[in-house]
């Protein structure tokens, strides 16, 4: 295993960048090594952020407040004066900047995947005619709302279903539970209340992250929850054949 992959493993085990850096050979730059792993898709910078102890984060924030505006030379001097590690400081700055972008990516992938899976299950269960999945599987209130939204859109999408929200998907699952409990991952098919509650929390995080004026502060618990939900509801965990998956 190469040094880069070993660093990723240690980060996943909970070591901070500073702890890992102490074990590297002289001349190795952990910033460069971490960014290579990020570039190869093996790591998200946001994962690094939460591994830096809060005490050091506060110290790094002190440097940023003293020298705003990405002045690396000033940051380097200030870190040296405060006996702070410039490489971990650099990773702190980069990972802090990545939080909303990484969370947006997680949310986008999860939401797109859920929309596709819910539709695939409905199409498989309601197949009497071409649009039976829509007319029989989706509650009328949601169909009407989506049709109105499509009509009012300046550049409407091809189908009303494209305008369903996470809360709409939650309602569909609730109303068609007998259909979905047969195909959902086993640990969720027996816990309807838990799954529906997940949708409420996911929607709250999504709305906060997407807020154009004042985005919410993203916590480690938020990241852990979104990753857990994404993994639990990944397509391979649903108990349906390839036709029902929409493959």
How would you explain this protein's 3D organization?
67% of the residues lie in helices and 0% in strands. The chain has helices spanning 3-12, 17-21, 30-39, 45-49, 54-66, 72-81, 86-125, 132-137, 140-152, 166-175, 177-180, 186-189, 192-210, 220-232, 242-245. Helix 1 packs across helix 3. The mean pLDDT is 90.
Anisotropy-based shape: elongated
**Overall mean confidence score, pLDDT:** 90
Global Rg? 23 Å
Strand portion: under 5%
Kindly state the percentage of residues in helix. Answer: 55-70%
Low-confidence stretches: none
Tally of alpha and pi helices: 15
How far apart the termini lie comes to 34 Å
Biggest sheet details: none
Number of strands: 0
Structural class: mainly alpha
Topology pattern, helix = H, strand = E: HHHHHHHHHHHHHHH
Tell me the layout of helices and strands:
Blueprint: H1 3-12, H2 17-21, H3 30-39, H4 45-49, H5 54-66, H6 72-81, H7 86-125, H8 132-137, H9 140-152, H10 166-175, H11 177-180, H12 186-189, H13 192-210, H14 220-232, H15 242-245
Helix pairs in contact: 1-3, 7-10, 7-13, 7-14, 10-13
